[in-house]
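Hi support team,

I've been running sequence recovery on a batch of backbones for a student project. Most finish fine, but this one hangs at about 90% for roughly twenty minutes before it completes. I'm not sure whether the input is malformed or the queue is just slow. I've pasted the structure tokens below so you can try to reproduce it. Let me know if you need the job ID as well.

Thanks,
M.K.
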């Protein structure tokens, strides 16, 4: 009779056999070893300074850092590695002879965060060249021969924080890279120093937030000298931005083929920079940003009366928004003054002061008061119009009137006052001549054409006499009688 076997022993035998087969299969699986020309340390592969014309094949898939610098690589094709390196985070390709990079060259390394392409022979950055690197944070392209940068070369790189483009031949400032809300929302450093930039979009650069301007390096460029450039960098110096403070001596511009430091442009007679205050009118809606040199800082606002502004409504109209900005729903006169923003971050703290000026009148609306300057201008225009009317549209003088009908009253047409002592009588009405004659006294002015001293007429001149109408009007036909009329003493006729 055979002895009965223990079922537990059978299960242990099968388990041991399974483990043995697993180890044999694992030992028989081909394992990618460290390339012969490289030095491997854990997940780091250093293939530097090996005069390699091509990238070594069969790179380990667990590689996290690959150093291929100081070699003879000239082209980076799409199939430069047959293995997909999903763990690779840093790729060093500096100091080679790269003059071509395929737009699909970075497909095998989708999680790359650090890429060094400096000190090569690249001339252009084509569109969508780095679009596969959506996790890239640092890109080094300095010391190449880059002349043109396509506007879409850095599309889909939302995580990029630092971009080094210095020591190239770039002549166009890539505004699309730094404009607020652009394709690189996290970019905090853009190095464009030592290029061929001559003109800058100064108004657009002035509007950039301080955390972008703090890392925008523009030194060692042949910029065009003008006062607007001086005001821009003077403002950056006033804010103690690193891009100006660290390279103050290397910020220069060109004028008449001579180099000048941008802070020493006395030949242009530029006005000194002064920090401007915010201006508002009654009832305006206003937002003042706490323009810090670092993102993500905690911000606290304090009013001119040394009161903290809360997130909810404070003082009736002033609040602090989610991004740390100071918001005025309706500006009042008592809101004027100096507001202080205290910003606290991981690296450093920052204090900013902002002055607000409030004009005591509204600017827009149906019931707004008129601007004082506008009222003064209107008053001046009306005054000029009235003066012109007075000078050129006054009633016409007697000598510019047309031919008028003779006067209907009796008497001589002399420029004098006629006093009648007795009523007029018709001399032809009969009776004695001495009984019904007229007595008139004439007081004459010694002025008028044809008159001499004492009111007497000069020889050869006659006094114009209007034609008589009607009966009883006297005619002046005797020259002697006219001369006697212009005597110094009144006469009775």
């Amino acid at each position: 009779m055979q002895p009965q076997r223990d079922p537990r022993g059978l299960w242990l035998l099968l388990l041991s056999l399974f483990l043995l087969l697993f180890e044999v299969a694992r030992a028989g699986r081909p394992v990618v070893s460290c390339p012969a020309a490289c030095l491997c340390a854990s997940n780091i592969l250093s293939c530097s300074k090996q005069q390699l014309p091509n990238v070594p094949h069969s790179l380990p898939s667990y590689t996290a850092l690959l150093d291929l610098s100081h070699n003879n690589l000239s082209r980076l094709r799409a199939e430069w590695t047959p293995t997909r390196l999903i763990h690779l985070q840093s790729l060093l390709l500096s100091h080679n002879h790269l003059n071509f990079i395929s737009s699909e060259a970075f497909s095998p390394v989708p999680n790359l965060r650090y890429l060094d392409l400096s000190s090569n022979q690249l001339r252009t950055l084509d569109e969508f060249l780095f679009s596969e690197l959506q996790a890239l944070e640092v890109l080094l392209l300095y010391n190449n021969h880059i002349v043109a940068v396509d506007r879409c070369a850095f599309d889909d790189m939302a995580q990029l924080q630092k971009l080094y483009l210095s020591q190239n031949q770039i002549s166009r400032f890539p505004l699309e890279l730094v404009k607020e809300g652009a394709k690189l929302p996290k970019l905090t450093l853009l190095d464009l120093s030592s290029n061929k930039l001559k003109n800058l979009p100064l108004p657009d650069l002035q509007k950039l937030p301080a955390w972008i301007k703090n890392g925008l390096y523009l030194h060692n460029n042949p910029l065009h000298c003008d006062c607007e450039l001086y005001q821009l960098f003077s403002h950056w110096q006033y804010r103690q931005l690193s891009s100006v403070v660290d390279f103050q001596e290397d910020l220069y511009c060109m004028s008449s083929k001579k180099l000048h430091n941008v802070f020493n442009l006395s030949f242009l007679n530029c006005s000194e920079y002064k920090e401007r205050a915010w201006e508002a009118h009654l009832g305006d809606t206003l937002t003042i940003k706490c323009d810090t040199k670092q993102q993500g800082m905690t911000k606290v606002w304090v009013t001119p009366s040394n009161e903290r502004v809360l997130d909810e409504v404070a003082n009736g109209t002033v609040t602090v928004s989610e991004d740390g900005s100071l918001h005025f729903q309706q500006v009042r006169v008592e809101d004027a003054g100096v507001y202080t923003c205290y910003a606290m971050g991981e690296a450093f703290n920052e204090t900013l002061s902002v002055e607000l000026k409030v004009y005591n009148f509204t600017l827009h609306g149906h019931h707004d008061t008129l601007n004082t300057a506008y009222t003064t201008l209107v008053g001046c225009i009306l005054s000029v119009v009235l003066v012109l009317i007075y000078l050129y549209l006054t009633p016409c003088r007697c000598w510019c009137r047309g031919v008028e009908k003779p006067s209907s009253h009796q008497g001589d047409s002399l420029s004098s006052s006629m006093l009648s002592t007795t009523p007029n009588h018709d001399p032809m009405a009969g009776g004695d001549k001495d009984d019904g004659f007229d007595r008139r006294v004439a007081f004459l002015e010694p002025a008028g054409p044809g008159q001499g001293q004492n009111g007497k007429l000069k020889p050869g001149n006659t006094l114009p006499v209007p034609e008589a109408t009607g009966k009883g009007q006297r005619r002046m036909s005797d020259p002697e009688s006219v001369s006697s009329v212009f005597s110094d003493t009144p006469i009775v006729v």
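--
Follow-up from support: It reproduced on our side and the slowdown came from queue contention, not your input. The longest strand covers residues 349-359. No action needed from you.
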